Amino acid sequence: MSLLSCGNGSSKVTAVTNCFIIKSVISQSRHIMTLSSHKANHSLSYWCVLFQGVGGGWIEAQNSRGEVGLVPEDYIEVREWLGVLSMELASFILYINVLFLLIYWCVCVCVWGVGAEDDEWDDEWDDVKSNSESGDGGAIQRGGATGSSMKISLNKFPGFSKSGPELFLLCKQPPKGKEKITIYMGEVGPVWSYPEAQLDCVVADPKKGTKMYGLKSYIEYHVIPNTTNRPVNHRYKHFDWLYERLLDKFGSAIPIPSLPDKQVTGRFEEEFIKMRMERLQGWMTRMCRHPVVSNSDVFQLFLTYKDEKDWKTGKRKAEKDEDVGVMIFSSIEPEAPDLDPIEVEQKCDQFSRFTKAMDDGVKDLLTVGQEHWKRCTGPLPKEYQRIGKAFQNLSSVFTSSGYQGEATLTDAMTSAGKTYEEIAQMVAEQPRKDLHFLMENNNEYKGLLGCFPDTIGVHKAAIEKVKEGDRLVAASKITPQDKVTMAKRVSTMSYALQAEMNHFHSNRIYDYNRVMQLYLEEQVKFYETIAEKLKQAHSQFTTM
Amino acid sequence: MSLLSCGNGSSKVTAVTNCFIIKSVISQSRHIMTLSSHKANHSLSYWCVLFQGVGGGWIEAQNSRGEVGLVPEDYIEVREWLGVLSMELASFILYINVLFLLIYWCVCVCVWGVGAEDDEWDDEWDDVKSNSESGDGGAIQRGGATGSSMKISLNKFPGFSKSGPELFLLCKQPPKGKEKITIYMGEVGPVWSYPEAQLDCVVADPKKGTKMYGLKSYIEYHVIPNTTNRPVNHRYKHFDWLYERLLDKFGSAIPIPSLPDKQVTGRFEEEFIKMRMERLQGWMTRMCRHPVVSNSDVFQLFLTYKDEKDWKTGKRKAEKDEDVGVMIFSSIEPEAPDLDPIEVEQKCDQFSRFTKAMDDGVKDLLTVGQEHWKRCTGPLPKEYQRIGKAFQNLSSVFTSSGYQGEATLTDAMTSAGKTYEEIAQMVAEQPRKDLHFLMENNNEYKGLLGCFPDTIGVHKAAIEKVKEGDRLVAASKITPQDKVTMAKRVSTMSYALQAEMNHFHSNRIYDYNRVMQLYLEEQVKFYETIAEKLKQAHSQFTTM
């Protein structure tokens, strides 16, 4: 197997940046690999990811000429194919697909560098994402339950990969007057600066709206922040736009969980709308709770825009924000002495181990929960129903005996039978009352934990760069002063990671306490109600 | 298909009584058909029952010469092959079987008219039945859960089948001084005469005994009646002897349920001994509760014999009792006007329908209960265990976070996990505490109800005979006075059946009330305990 982009270090990068721009691909594996550069020419190349698990930072891929080889992972953007449809073209594609009788399962076209000017364009696919990146930026990640997308843009530092944390590690001093994100030393270690009043919002009142004289319909939600108490309207695609902005801006430092699953069919069914709203609520609550995210301009815009004009202006501004990717770290100011690189690495490894272990634990609980759900809604209530029927059946046989003084027994048996039928129904309905929330919480955490490998990956890459410092100085790739700056900045990154982990832990402790309380409370009610019903049934029998 | 014993009425009977004696048979269907008569020669014939459901009182059978035909049901004794092994020969057969390497699955030999003189003979097969019939007698039945055996002996009335109720219908006046069984008219209709003090007994203290210098061992139980409070010793085979006596004596009028299952292997295992004792207790309680059975000499002997000599004397006397089979009806004296034969038939049909319907209902409940038992001891506790493990697993992951102030949550999660493990154990153990008794009760009733078709069959046969009255008078087979006597006596039989049904109903109402109370009481405790445990677990979580 040949190395498509051979060499190491800078030569590798140059090779890549000068050679490839992959705009779209029809991929067997439903994944698209994109290599992009501002220097790159705009010829189209089709790449197909063959194998992502090569390891060592390489991916096996095949290009449009059929050549198979390894490509450095860092230079690649891997996306689920549906996710990269540009909104401007998705509608067109939909009709094309219908016209061509779905001959191709997937047609993907990425249009580079053309930002969506507004969202007046409408489509049936509320969930198809706007792909309007502002051209520049560092690493941003997407992780979570619904697949992952890793985008690495390149930067201009000579001697460095144009992806990864180098952009920040060796950047100039941030411009004055820039918004600061302070990290304090709290009881538990580094912590973000938390606002006095906790931002919160309610997602409510889903309403069906139409456009184009009723040809297109969508669901619009009220989002009501506790700061203004004034509802603003948002569609799923607005949430998705916000998600993309937050991922761009904060993804290197803060895990931004995916939005609830995309869904094409049944979008207007009541059950689905309810579930999506509940999950959008969960996502918004988590974002509101995050002191850095909730304080950002784009998030505030989303919650409190005054009118359509305000929204559009803010939208355009957010899309042009250049402080995205790893550059978020340039805004962060820890109020604490620089950390030793060894300690930085130890912390990073610890977080890595913990999040991996918790990911396993959460997935295990989800599997067990799913099986329990199935049993509770399937065979178990059927069995209680059969027990109930058997009692009632025997009761009606007894009624036919013609024997006097039978009524008390037969009434009691019928009543006991009905009680077991009620229990059957209770058993079947119970998971929605308790297990549901336990599952939702763990699903949320599964999504969050899915973001950590990327967040921690940026961190690890930075640590490696710092380790390379001496060699880079010797090779005159960087100055000795650059090396000192890098160490200082990786310390800043570590403070950010620690603050984020502490935020995660504190939320986790709250969330699991809350959801376990809720689960057990409902379980107690459930068993108490059954006991009470059976006590009633019991009281009707007599051996006097 | 030819009629093997062709003709009708008397000619049929003569043909049968003069032609056939079937002593044993190796049968594919594991059933043996025996036709016997005192007049008959002793040549052996092998009969194989092909189909019992022909109806109209006929059974399809094949004799040793390969001839297939219909044989009147009344003349046939159908037994499970193990049940007819005579005790004297069973041991021998056992060894023969071993010697001949079980080439034949079944070797059955009936020895007629040789009563067992005592029970000094011992064998490993506690459960092999003594087959010592006192040569004469009417119909006796055996029914129940463990297979059925119907024995019809013949009588000497010319012009009548020597089986069935004719023996009683046309017998001479019973000798004076004979014990009377009175039937009163109670609130619910005809009822047996109930004693003022209810007889009861306890079966307890199973002890292993040995004979023949330790070569043979058996289990002996204490049986303690509430009348004397003095324990007497009995082995399973004594219970079985009692069962046979009661069946001989009362089986035509009173359903005598089978003893608990025979068992050869594992007879000395604690669990088995406990279960057998529990079931012998249940059987004895039911017999004690029956005013006719409990008042009988043989039952009193069993409960209160003074010493070995007393026991043996009583035993020999009981085995020579000639008042067995349908002749039990001759002791019965209803204190009420004779019933119209049409009413008799209606009652009979009603009882037949009811017992059939209840049999179905009981079997349905047993099936449902068995499945529930399986789920409660199999997959369900495993699932609760996995839920418990998942909580504890997540708790230990949390413990590894290194975050301060985690202990309350992790302790609570571990505790919740352990609670679900405890619930798993409770779920698995619960069926023994409640479902067990519900199942045992229904198993008992299944056994009892299995006796009714035979008991009701005797009754139906008597009704048919009365219907034939005019024809028999015309053919000078009976006198007009005989016909009047028959009608009177079938009325007595009907009173007995009604008294027995009322006894059955009153016991049934008591038993089902009691067992449902017990079941629901334990179910309430079960759910309350779970709720309490979960409440405890709940209290450890906090969102303060």
Automatic annotation (TrEMBL), chains A, B:
PROSITE patterns: PX. Belongs to the sorting nexin family. SMART domains: PX (SM00312). Pfam families: BAR_3_WASP_bdg, PX. The chain crosses the membrane at residues 92-114. This is Sorting nexin. It is found in: Cytoplasmic vesicle membrane. GO terms for cellular component: cytoplasmic vesicle membrane; plasma membrane. Residues 135-146 have a biased composition (Gly residues). It is a peripheral membrane protein. The keyword Lipoprotein does not apply. Keywords: Cytoplasmic vesicle, Membrane, Protein transport, SH3 domain, Transmembrane, Transmembrane helix, Transport. A 1,2-diacyl-sn-glycero-3-phospho-(1D-myo-inositol-4,5-bisphosphate) binds at residues 235, 237, 276. Residues 199-309 form the PX domain.
